[in-house]
Amino acid sequence: MERPLRLDPPVDLNEHLVHRILYDRDPRLKIVCDKIAVRELIRERVGEAFVVPLLGVWSDPREIEWEALPERFVLKPNHGSGSVALVHGEPDRDPEALARQAADWLRDDYFDVSLEWGYRDLPRRILAEPMLDGEGGAAVTEAVAMTFGGKVAAIRVFTGGKGTPERSDTWFDRNGARLPFHSLKYQPGDYAIDPDTTARIIAAAEAVSEGFSHLRVDFYLTRDGLRIGELTPYCGAGLIPWNRRGCDNVFGRMWDDPDWIDRIDDLGAVIAASD
Prior knowledge:
Helix content is about 30%, strand content about 20%.
């Protein structure tokens, strides 16, 4: 990040995240990081409607009954982040190749990537989920809510395929107003979020993140309503490259004082003043 790391105490958001990686041993992090175990937490806090359905769970890829899976599905490991195989139809449906990929996932402990304790020594399994669709059968849109102390500070909407140059992010405040910043990992987006979706994201994210100093709550905006894909306690592994330094400053202060979120009238102006 090209600046000294402050940990005693952490100040910016990235510093708080690194501090969590090094020192936070809250046992709930093991639940949050496990894509199977976290379903029960989501179910208890916001209900079954927010849980992405499961098609199957396997400890050994050789046990997967490929013929029992639908034409379209998603395959991923429960013990990591970012690894996924999207099967849109017959051209993607190569059981031997998918089984090899799944076996590769099972060999790795995701903890080794960034030393995030919540992933360390999780039981390793492969899971399948149905392919989710957005409105009108379009690709599903992803939205994440940044929460501090169980309060939503901002909402980020991703558009464009993962890992493609078209991937972009658009940020909004709690009122759905567009915010003038983005992560340097992506292009600035031009998504427009409606008030009803904003309100439903805030209500669900605050319910599911209650009692946590910080969680990123990741949603899919599907044609059947909101689904929570995962809860992320280590956003960007503490290496988020903002286009505005004020983002790091302001979100770090929110980690220390979540009640400050309710006292902010114009988040964009606060961030600009903190650059």
